[in-house]
Amino acid sequence: MLARLGRYRIVERLGRGGVGEVYRAEDPRLERSVALKVLRDDALRDETARRRFRLEARALSRLLHPNIAMLFDFDSDAGTDFLVMEFVPGETLASLLQAGALPEQRARAIALEVAEALQAAHEQGVVHRDLKPGNVIITPRGQAKVLDFGLAGFIQLAGEPSHATTRRDLGRFHATLPYAAPETLEGGRADARTDLYALGVMLFEMTSGRRPFVADSAAALLYGIAHEPPPLLRTVSPGVSAELEGIVSVCLDKAPARRYADAMALARALRNAPAPADVPVGARPAGVESDPSRVRSLAVLPFENRSGDPAQEYFADGMTDTLIADLAQIGALRVISRTSAMRFKGARTPLQEIARDLRVDAVVEGSALRAGDRVRITVQLVDARTDRTIWGGSYERDLTDVLTLQREVAGAIADEIRIHLTPEEHARLSARRKVNPLAHVAYLQGRYLWNRWSADAVQESILRFREAIVADPSYALAYAGLADAYGVLGNTNVLGPAEAYSQAKSAAEQGLAIDDTVAELHASLGFVHFYFDWDWPRAERRFLRTVQLNPGYATGRRWYSLFLSGMGRHDEAIAEAERALELDPLSLIIHTTVGDVLFFARQYDRSIAYYRRCLELEPTFGPAHSDLARVLEHVGRYDEAVAELRLGAAEEGRTEPTAALATLLARTGRREEARAMIEAVLAGAGRQVVSAWGVASYFAVTGERERALDWLERAHAQRDGALVWIKVHPRIDDLRCEPRFVELLTRMRLDT
User: Torsion-angle region of residue 34: left (phi > 0), alpha (psi -120 to 50) or beta?
Assistant: First the structure.
């Protein structure tokens, strides 16, 4: 056995294949195990063939996918040519199948991972050409890894006259022949559908324990593959489902045009029961053709993390968010916001069901992989009505070009569905933007934390956003993240209003000085102008600019609807909130926002309906219980309101007395209990934030008007954000004729 090749120390021989021998070796430079495939002497006959193969190997080395064993290098040592490949521990699928057939679900899972690997390679123009169980490794964790992508074809091109196309060569290829597609045996060109045939054979073998064509000689096997119909899977393995039998039958069709259109369609069929639209055109019923021009609404589903590393989940989520943000800027297209889309993360819900729930015409699926400073994303646009792929693409770039990459994807989707872009929209999607990799990664980590909404996670996100700004002070999105983080901490009283909102304002203004086309920055600054500055004209200008720059930004529309409600412009507020809900139909917080603006418009029955819908989506969502309690109070259902308020507090883990509960107890006539609770609230002021607005509301309900007005003055002095509802909140209606109240409205410029 060889002791060394190049810098690699041979450890053991792993086996022999059609191309050569395989060894496990140690790479002393990188201190890792690798697999060396030593090519047989006649594989590459001259220097021209070696040079060509080196170029092909370079293309193969760019296949980045968790189900593909990577090719690292092609090298020679003393006339011996060898490949340096990822060492994948485990056993081959061929070895696994020696024990017999696999359970259907296990076979489907393996086939699905192989199909996804094939799709990734096909998108790069690489066809495997020699797919078989011996070229699939099952790792100790059960993951399938495909070996030798394209090598058989490249070796053939460089040094072989043909690929088993004559009878005299059949004996030499007998081991691979059972997986060869009919067209290749008749001299046809191998393409992506050739690999799908081979995977169909493997699926047949995995679930039945035998191959579809079996013969005593290579010639008889050749004739069967080329001319005889394959047996139906369930005649050989009766326990297999009809759905899987249908999938295998499509894969094994002798006519390539009648097989699945691509590996992605096969993967979808393996995930779900195959829909008619997954069957090739000739087998599809009439009237289900996809029409890209009818797509006017879509959802981008959470990208799949293809790294195999859960710590990289933030990257896949970040790519999803950015594509949503780019597409949402197209005014003629309704794009579902991230909150609703993320509810399907990790789910195996059929696409048509997702589209029905989100009320969209099409769905975008994708995957993301980051390897060092390289990024690869794969995207497909699927017609929700027919479940047919309208468009698909794969993109690979340096991390510095990731923003441009995502805008290219958004532009390609817009082109495919023939959507009209305004000149401004076209310019934004065409702009090329470089990004500092360290800054972008830190920003994505920050957004991932911010979207978790807990106080600890939001505070941690601030550190990541600041890291991004240090890495690249000109990165405007990082300032938007920082502004939103401080805005949340101020709005939830984790930080005092003055500290939180001043930080939010500073970050938003710095970001806008860098790039005033970032909609999120305008929304963040409008949020501060509304809740803290009480500068109504400037707040509205920012919100309007947000909607203009990004019509699909549901959060910006939600904040604008609340602003309109606080101003008493109820019809506009309701319309804007309902538009936000169209963009984010499964968002819990937007359901409560629609309920809120209806509540302030005194449309109590409609308000209750939206809070109820929110709780149907998520019964443990505390804010919906609390908001429902508020509206039940105003329709006189006090006992129900108390129960809902207590339930909301329990869901949020709050046990301390609150002014809201004291107010409700007072409404029910339990005055002594209510008084004891409000005194407990005031006594705890040194240990926790006490809402001056909440205390003022209590005294307004109990008829203690002067004390209520005193606390409203205190709320004004503290810049209590809840004071933005002073013009419209029904709980303080009894104070509206008081001169002090009128004077306060005048000071806040809310007297019109």
Answer: beta
Tell me the DSSP string of 574-605.
Answer: HHHHHHHHHHSTT-HHHHHHHHHHHHHTT-HH
Alpha-carbon dihedral 272, 275, 279, 284, rounded to 10 degrees: 180
Show the tokens assigned to 80.
């011996």
Contact 212, 251 (CB under 8 A): no
Q: Tokens for 264?
A: 């992605």
Residue 687 has pLDDT above 80, yes or no: no
Structure confidence by residue, pLDDT tens digits, 1-11: 678 888 889 99
Query: Is the pLDDT confidence value at 51 over 90?
Result: no
What percent of the chain stands above pLDDT 70?
A: 88
**3-state class (DSSP) for residue 263:** helix
What pLDDT, on a 0 to 100 scale, did the predictor assign at position 189? Answer: 75
| Mean pLDDT computed over 321-335 | 85
**3-class secondary structure, 371:** strand
Q: Which amino acid is at 75?
A: D
Cα→Cα distances 204→185, 212, 421, 716, Å: 20, 7, 48, 74
Single-letter residue type at 48: T
Rounded distance between C-alpha atoms, residue 280 and residue 249, angstroms: 12
pLDDT at position 606, please? 95
H or E segment and range at residue 368: strand 362-371
Q: How far apart are CA 586 and CA 136, in angstroms?
A: 41
- The catalytic position among 27, 42, 77, 130 is 130
Pairing of strands 136-138, 144-146: antiparallel
**Which one, of 496, 488, 494, lies nearest residue 447 by Cα?**
488
Residue 435 to residue 661: CA distance in whole angstroms: 50
Radius of gyration of the chain (CA): 32
Per-residue pLDDT at 255 exceeds 50: yes
pLDDT, one tens digit per residue, over 523-577 is: 999 999 999 999 999 999 999 999 988 888 999 999 999 999 999 999 999 999 9
**Residue 264 and residue 389 in contact, taking contact as beta carbons nearer than 8 Å:** yes
Determine the straight-line distance between the first and last CA of the chain, rounded to whole angstroms: 92
DSSP three-state, residue 473 = coil
144, 134, 358: which is closest to 267 by C-alpha? 144
DSSP-derived letter for residue 241 is: -
Rounded Cα distance, 154 and 157, in Å: 5
Query: DSSP labels for 532-575?
Result: II--HHHHHHHHHHHHHH-TT-HHHHHHHHHHHHHTT-HHHHHH
* DSSP string across 672-732: HHHHHHHHHHHHGGGTS---HHHHHHHHHHTT-HHHHHHHHHHHHHTT-GGGGGTTT-GGG
Identify the pLDDT of residue 387: 74
H and E: helices and strands count for the chain: 32, 15
Say which amino acid occupies 591. H
- The mean per-residue pLDDT over the stretch 123-133 comes to 86
Q: Is pLDDT above 60 for 167?
A: no
Q: Minimum mean pLDDT among 400-404, 419-423, 497-501: which range?
A: 400-404
- Residue 734 annotated to the active site: no
Which residues have C-beta within 8 Å of that of residue 644, sequence separation ≥ 6? 625, 626, 628, 629, 632
CB 590 within 8 A of CB 581: yes
Query: Cα(583)–Cα(299) distance, rounded to whole angstroms?
Result: 9
Q: How far apart are CA 349 and CA 341, in angstroms?
A: 12
Q: Going along 384-476, which residue ranges are E strands? A: 388-398
Beta strand pairing call for 304-305 and 8-16: unpaired
Q: Region 278-299: what's the mean pLDDT?
A: 56
Q: How far apart are CA 588 and CA 625, in angstroms?
A: 12
Which residue has tokens 């004559």? 166
Q: What share of the chain is helix, strand, coil (3-state, %, to 5)?
A: 55, 10, 30
Q: Give me the pLDDT at residue 375, please.
A: 80
Q: What is the rounded CA–CA span in Å between residue 132 and residue 670?
A: 77
Task: Find where tokens 């029905």 sit.
Answer: 356
**What pLDDT was estimated at residue 158?**
43
Q: Tell me the β-bridge partners of 366.
A: 379
